[in-house]
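Table 4 source record.
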Amino acid sequence: MTQPADIPAADRYQRLDAFLGKLHGDIYPETPTEGHSTISREMFSRLQQQLPLPPAAAVLDVGCGQGVGLELFKAAGLQPLGITLGPDVEACRAKGLDVVEMDLSFLDFEDGRFDMVWCRHALEHSVFPFFTLSEMHRVLKPGGVLYVEVPAPDTSCRHQTNPNHYSVLGKSMWMELIRRTGFPEIIALDIHFPTGAGPDTYWAFMMRKPV
């Protein structure tokens, strides 16, 4: 019988690649909404107050959608770069925004490149969020800032039932994964608001990579 250790690494990675390829069909465009735009503005303002960035900071927007955050960072004098998949890439480029097509879990950037990584409503799309968080930690400069925002499970909006959501975890689990990644101090905020389906909750986490 073939033992797991006897399976070539290349074969294992091919199976992973094929699995991720099947999920590509779940990708959908993230059309901006006033509610999400308002929350983005409010949370970026709080982030600047709590964990200020240097002038002209290099920012990576992971899962940038159609560019709401990128436009916000650009207006603040920062140097933003977005990554996303599917039709949102061209939607951002049509606005003159700097965007590359890239999976959020496989960041093709050198270590310590960015002053901030912004990941708003993207991490729940990862099939292995611990690894994804580790990649964000890797590309951050020492002293760099990470912002993560995710939907809570079991609210009126039932985010866990979205076919493109693979990791709608509990708040304590998110905080534990973030700590294990290398962020010992986390500022956690609950965002509560009404929707047509009923009350909803997002969880926001702000942290600075140790120097």
